[in-house]
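Pilot study result, target chain (213 residues):
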Amino acid sequence: MADVTSIELCVNYQLDGLWPGKNMIRQARSIFSGDLSVMIRPRPGDFCYSEHELLILLNQIAEARKSGANAITFGCLTNEVGVAWDQVDQIIQHAGSDITLTFHRAIDQVIDQGMAIKLLADRGVHRVLTSGGPGLARDHVEELAAYQQIAGPTLSIVAAGSVRPGDIAKMRSRGISSFHSSASLRADGQADSVLIGKLIRACEKDSKTADTV
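Predicted structure:
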């Protein structure tokens, strides 16, 4: 059976996801025993954070850990469309070595995405969510495959951007084994249980080691 053991927890998905709050984290942990990754993001808009906002991010990480999360999803950029490495280093140090680190799709705004992925891997980040280019992940399979080669064995490129069941086999054939989908086909924006089931079955059919987030 495919390894479908990871959930990214956030609110306001229409705003690309925000910090869900400790009560929601505790509730999620009470019913889900797998990899619970919490969105560390204090506000909508860009991913360029002031020093004050960085302190809020660090506090959210501490609250996430206390509330039962074992993973975080984050991203910090500069005004020059690069990664804010000083802030990333502080977040990594604050999170601790026993927590799974995912850099979210802010990476898609970075000019030199390949170099950023390499440096994230060097810092011990475990996952990077990316569509590989503008638009949908299915349109950038070769770019995703190239990024996985750059990342090496310690960092997983997670294909993100309206991933659907029919995309899995092609991506797997190019070395992509991790997939992220909000599965939001319903008119109210909530996850569609039928689509989730199809994604799981696609991963099971294609590989025993596929990971869906």
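One observation from the pilot: The first strand starts at residue 6 and ends at 9. A full batch analysis is planned for the follow-on phase.
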